[in-house]
Amino acid sequence: MNTLVHPHAGTGVHPEAAVARPFMNPYLAGFLLGLVLLATFAITGRGLGATAGFAALATGLASSLGVEHLQASGVHMKYWNDGAPLLNWTLFLLVGALAGAALSGWQAHRIRWSIERGPNTTDGRRLLLAFVGGFIAAYGAKIAKGCTSGQALTGSAVLNVSGLVFMGAVFLAAFAVAQLVRKEWL
Amino acid sequence: MLPLASSVDFSLGAELAIALVLGLGFGFALERAGFGSARKLTAVFYLYDMAVVKVMFSAVVTALVGLAVLSGAGVLDMSALYFEPTNWVAQIGGGLLFGAGFVVGGYCPGTSMAAIATGRKDGILFALGMLTGVWAYAELTPGLDEWYKATAAGELTLPGLTGIGMGWWAAGFVAFLAFGAWGMGRLEHRFAHLRPRA
Is the peptide bond preceding residue A22 cis, with omega within 30 degrees of 0? Predict the structure, then answer.
């Protein structure tokens, strides 16, 4: 039933490759994700996150410019971790997520080089918009102190107003901007 | 007594190992749901495939009910959990920016891991954009963190604001999910013409 695993711009799709399996029932996948979130709370007392992992990596990369450079920014210092910015909890979570997703994709024959886009745009334009969108999302997540994982999922699960308000704002803006970028996806 | 971290003093190595294992489950669930695909993720904003809402809502309800049961049974101390303080301007302004970035970029930070793991080149570009974005925030506007702290309204939760207990909220969310599932099925039927053909 799934029509999304063969994107129009797919490259390197081998005809002999095994057929990709359909995605899991969304409610079941949500239940699974909820169990992971519950386990995270029960063990660490905090929920999931993702943006902090990127922030720690950025601080790690920026440290090549020298520690004096980092000291000019309180944000960098927050992730400095006494000289070991890469030993960051959320960054390790992201590395685990990369492996977990690879395992799932491999098992379901869903791994192939591709660029996801609608039929009415080009690969180059899509790649540019992916970068720009990532930049904007990062800035928004830093201002809001969390993203879909750290605020929307984690915050909502403990009935935290910050997570629920964040989620509302995300959907509001995304629905509106979706009308401006119809050609990217439809 | 849960959370474990409040009674057990984990070493750094143990903490990072826990992060890796939980991350494994996190990424596995995201990829299973189809969240390595930008078109599957953005479909929700054109209403022909509501998987994003279905997955997120059932994940929230699962964790919420689990926490309510565990704390009701006296096994988990809710007050030992971390709550991000609410800052109305930050969550609304940052959320609006994030939503725009989500639909333009096609992913969010966590799902970009699932995209990269399954070979999406646009997922790699999104993650590079993210990395550049958090770097720019740290370099150009580090003062925003101080502003957040100075203007935050504090820890606000629905039970705290309304006086209605967590168990009632959990029951309400379950009922809302059941109603929402019915409504989302109707939406998907109505907007099915937008669904891409293979």
Answer: no
CB-based contact A79:A56 (threshold 8 Å)? yes
Q: Is A13 on the interface with B (CB under 8 A)?
A: no
Q: Give the closest-approach CA distance of B177 to chain A in angstroms.
A: 10
B82 contacts in A (CB within 8 Å)? 45-47
Predicted complex ipTM:
0.97
A 154-173 near B (Cβ less than 8 A)? 155-173
pLDDT band for position A1 (cuts 50, 70, 90):
very low
Q: In this predicted structure, what is the pLDDT of residue A9? A: 47
Q: Convert the pLDDT of each residue in A100-116 to its tens digit.
A: 999 999 999 999 999 99
How confident is the model over B168-187, as pLDDT tens digits? Answer: 999 999 999 999 999 999 99
Mutate which of A139, A154, A165, A171 to test chain B, going by most B C-beta atoms within 10 A? A139
Report how far apart, in Å, the C-alpha atoms of B109 and of each of A49, A90, A144, A156, A177 are.
9, 12, 14, 18, 19
Residue B1: count other Cβ atoms within 10 Å of its Cβ.
10
The alpha-carbon gap from B178 to the nearest alpha carbon of chain A, in Å, equals: 11
Closest alpha carbon to A50 in B177, B35, B80: B35
Mean pLDDT over residues A79-86, rounded?
A: 96
**Per-residue confidence (pLDDT) for residue A18, from 0 to 100:** 82
Q: How far apart (Å, rounded) are the C-alpha atoms in residues B16 and A134?
A: 26
Q: Contact A137/B97, CB-based, under 8 Å?
A: yes
Residues of A in contact with B22 (CB under 8 A): 36, 39-40, 43, 48, 93, 96
The alpha-helical segments, DSSP class H, found in chain B are: 12-32, 38-42, 51-72, 88-105, 109-117, 121-140, 143-151, 158-162, 166-190
- State the Cα angle at B124 between B93 and A22, rounded to 5°: 95
Residue of B nearest to A76 (CA): B138
pTM flag (> 0.90): yes
Select from B59, B108, B125 the Cβ nearest to the Cβ of A34: B59
Q: How far is A5 from chain B (nearest CA, A)?
A: 8
Q: Please say whether the beta carbons of A42 and B4 come within 8 A.
A: yes
